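Hello,

Our lab assistant flagged a job as stuck in the queue for most of the afternoon. It eventually completed. Since we weren't sure the result was trustworthy after the delay, we are filing this so someone can double-check. Below is the sequence as submitted and the structure that was eventually returned. Let us know if re-running is recommended.
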Amino acid sequence: MISIKNNLKIDSIFITNIIFALFPLSFILGNFAISLILVLFCLLGIFHIKSKNLSINYNLSIKIIFIFFILVFFSTSIIFLKFLYIDGYKYENLVPLIKSITLFRFFLMLVIACILIENDILDLNYFFISAAFFPAFIASDIIFQYIFGFNIVGLESFRDHHIPPGKYFSSFFGDELIAGSYIRSFSFFSILFLIYKLKNNYLNKFIFTAILICLLGLAVFISGNRMPLLLFILTLFLTFFFVPRVKPIVLTSIFALCAIFYFMFAVDIIKKKQFLSFHGSIRNNIIVIKDSLMSNSEKSVAEVVNNKKIKEIPLTDFDDFWLRKHGEDSFGQLERDIYMTALDIWEKNIIFGNGIRAFRRDCHKLLEYRKNRICSNHPHNYYMEILVDTGIAGLFIVSIIAISFLIFIFKNYKLLLVNNRNNLILLAATMSLIVEMFPIRSSGSIFTTHNATYIIILASIILSFKKLLSQK
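-- returned structure --
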């Protein structure tokens, strides 16, 4: 009888580890799979905590994160009560409040993951293998799809009558153009896993790691996801500076990728147009911001954007072609308009924000009396969204979390350089979170199932190691 109970405990621990390791796969399968894995993991985690009578000691970082979740609920509740008083009960006003409550499942996942890791129930080696394998698999599939027009199970490349064929390749993601973003999200794990496995053979480590980096980079390029490519390059530079022992590998890979991209520009005019237009967008945004800052008059960025000054920026021949074909919006006008819209909505409730889903709710009202504004489901930037939804209070809490996170990195920088499995997992999670939360980038909504789960996974790894290090 005792042996049966012991076997059940061992099996339940193994199943819990496998469930957690399935998260990278669930991101490919979609939100339903992510939610299912999250629920199963939380249920198994609660079972282990109760059966082993594990103590729950909330450190300062977790308490601050909990305050952020409370603030999201508080801000949304205030707006709901306001609408209830003015307009009466409407279901569409209740939906954000319900969502703000269900967001606590991510905090529950964070606490459970930290407890299980700290008590050696959750073995991150399974997750490390999974997070290393799937981005390489998707990268290979995208390249296969680019060459043959369909992926390994027969799914054709992305097609839409509004978009030229060959512009995007989505692998198993279908109509969701996030394949490049997925590869970028787990690329650190993939690269560092291979470095760890080949640590005793420098020549093989050099050759195969360089090949892997080129494979991942080429796939992100082919996918057509431009911001993920920029972030992937940032990933390589972070690896170069934070992992000194692999500097020759990364440097060689960067030069190889430059040669590959140059070749791709020569043979694929669609990709050339796509990424040069991205260059034009970045360049013009920088010029507009610089001009607004250097202006002698007290003009805002919005005013500079709205005048005709942007049309006076010298254009290359290709820029002129793209401008005539797609209009001024191709040079970042849409991004600037959406950020200006976000700032306008934030001004309604500066301190505590307007509750979640505020942007999609209020932007339509703004269009009625403000020019050069645009509507969307979210502001396409994590920090803009936090500012709109939770105000200065939310941004302040996030800043405290970020400062705590940076202090942890600097205090344990030498430890991150030690070449063992746990430290490489910690390094991969740390660098991935830095890139994910990079302020100057476009992004999805931070409150979606996909993005919130990904951030919580990274945070749980870092926070659990942070507590273990403080105990030593």
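-- support follow-up --
The delay was a queue issue, not a problem with the job. The result is valid. Confidence is low (pLDDT under 50) at residues 296-331. The first helix runs from residue 2 to 21.
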